[in-house]
């Protein structure tokens, strides 16, 4: 009589198939799903870094052109003459504000002057401009509503302060400083360097204070992080700092548009793996059914044959001999 304990032979075969084929496929599917997010992040970070590097190159070229226009003011004979006539300070008081006539700082650019012509070229790029003497005293000033003030900054945009030295054309001695408040968009607006990054946000910051210069659709302080959550979505951010002009740029974008193709590919692979798993289970069930039946019949036959065999026992033996 046979006693069946534990799993049947067929169940054991199916478990072997599950452990040897189906389980690795399932683990592979989980791995594909987890790497989809990381693949999207790597792709996005590479795009952001490339785009921001291209943008920095574009900003550098724009600044060289704008810087040259501003420094042309420093080369004007009237500016050179007035700054040479001034000492390091006025009566030993640094920062005193005086014009050539001694009645206060002059307004830059009388009509028809060369200075006025240069200021017209800076319209939309400069919010305010001041020429300071060696002692820090204001010699000339351009108010924000003056000749270059037609491109007034909105309340959401802060100017970028930049200082450029004024030097004597003959001796190279420093005569003063041009103090400029730049429109940040003069360096950035119109650039398509980062247009290839879907949903990207560009932030501009003043290095010393960390003040945000441009309005952005996310919290500007979030752009200081390489990875952050905003409105239930993961964002990545890359930053670069320029020394001239002093400017920090941060480019950020959500991960979702870049991770979605990888997620869809992972879901497609999971569906394929599920179909393969189902086929493997069906085939293994069909194959093990015939195999286990044959093995069970063989085991039954062997057990039946063993029951019919005579019981072998050990005992004393007798022998017959011939009597002589």
Topology:
Blueprint: H1 9-74, H2 77-85, E1 106-107, H3 114-121, E2 126-133, E3 138-142, E4 160-167, E5 174-182, H4 185-188, E6 201-205, E7 227-229, E8 234-242, E9 247-254, H5 256-308
Parallel strand pairs: 1-3
Antiparallel strand pairs: 2-3, 2-5, 4-5, 6-9, 7-8, 8-9
How would you describe this structure to a colleague?
- The chain has 324 residues and is an alpha+beta fold.
- Among the domains are: 39-57 and 192-258, no CATH class; 68-188, no CATH class.
- It contains five helices and nine strands; from the N terminus they run ααβαββββαββββα.
- It has a five-stranded mixed sheet with strand order 1-3-2-5-4.
- Strand 2 and strand 3 form a beta hairpin.
- Helix 1 runs antiparallel to helix 5 (256-308).
- The chain is rod-shaped and about 130 Å long.
- It starts with 8 loop residues before the first helix and ends in a 16-residue tail after the last helix.
- Residues 1-5, 90-104, 145-151 and 317-324 have low confidence and may be disordered.
List keywords for this structure.
alpha+beta, 4-stranded antiparallel beta sheet, 5 helices, disordered N terminus, disordered C terminus
Class from helix and strand fractions: alpha+beta
Q: Rg to the nearest angstrom?
A: 42 Å
Shape: rod-shaped
Largest sheet: 5 strands, mixed
The number of helical runs is: 5
Cα end-to-end separation: 54 Å
What proportion strand? 15-25%
Can you write the helix and strand succession as a string?
A: HHEHEEEEHEEEEH
Order of the strands making up the biggest sheet: 1-3-2-5-4
Number of strands: 9
Low-confidence stretches: 1-5, 90-104, 145-151, 317-324
């Amino acid at each position: 009589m046979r006693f069946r304990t534990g799993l049947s032979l067929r169940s054991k075969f199916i478990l072997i198939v599950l452990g040897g084929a189906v389980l690795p496929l399932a683990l592979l599917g989980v791995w594909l799903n987890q790497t989809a997010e990381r693949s999207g992040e790597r792709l996005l970070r590479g795009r952001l870094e490339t785009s921001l590097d291209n943008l920095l190159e574009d900003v550098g070229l724009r600044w060289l052109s704008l810087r040259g226009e501003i420094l042309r003011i420093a080369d004007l004979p009237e500016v050179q003459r007035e700054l040479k006539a001034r000492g390091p300070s006025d009566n030993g008081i640094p920062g005193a504000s005086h014009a050539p006539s001694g009645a206060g700082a002059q307004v830059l650019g009388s009509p028809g002057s060369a200075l006025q012509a240069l200021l017209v070229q800076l319209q939309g790029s400069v919010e305010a401009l001041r020429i300071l003497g060696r002692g820090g005293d204001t010699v000339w000033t351009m108010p924000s509503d003056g000749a270059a003030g037609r491109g007034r900054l909105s309340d959401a945009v802060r100017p970028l302060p930049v200082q450029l030295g004024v030097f004597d054309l003959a001796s190279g001695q420093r005569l003063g400083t041009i103090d400029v408040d730049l429109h940040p968009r003069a360096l950035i607006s119109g650039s398509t360097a980062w247009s290839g990054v879907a949903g990207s946000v560009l932030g501009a910051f003043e290095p010393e204070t960390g003040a945000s210069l441009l309005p952005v659709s996310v919290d500007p302080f979030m752009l200081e992080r390489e990875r952050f959550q905003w409105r239930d979505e993961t964002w990545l951010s890359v930053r670069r700092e320029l020394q001239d002009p002093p400017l920090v740029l941060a480019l950020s974008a959500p991960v979702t548009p870049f991770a979605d193709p990888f997620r869809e590919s992972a879901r497609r692979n999971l569906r394929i793996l599920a179909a393969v798993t189902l086929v493997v289970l069906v085939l293994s069930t069909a194959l093990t059914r015939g195999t286990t039946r044959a093995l069970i019949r063989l085991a039954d036959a062997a057990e039946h044959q063993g029951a019919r065999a005579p019981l072998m026992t050990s005992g004393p033996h007798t022998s017959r001999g011939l009597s002589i």
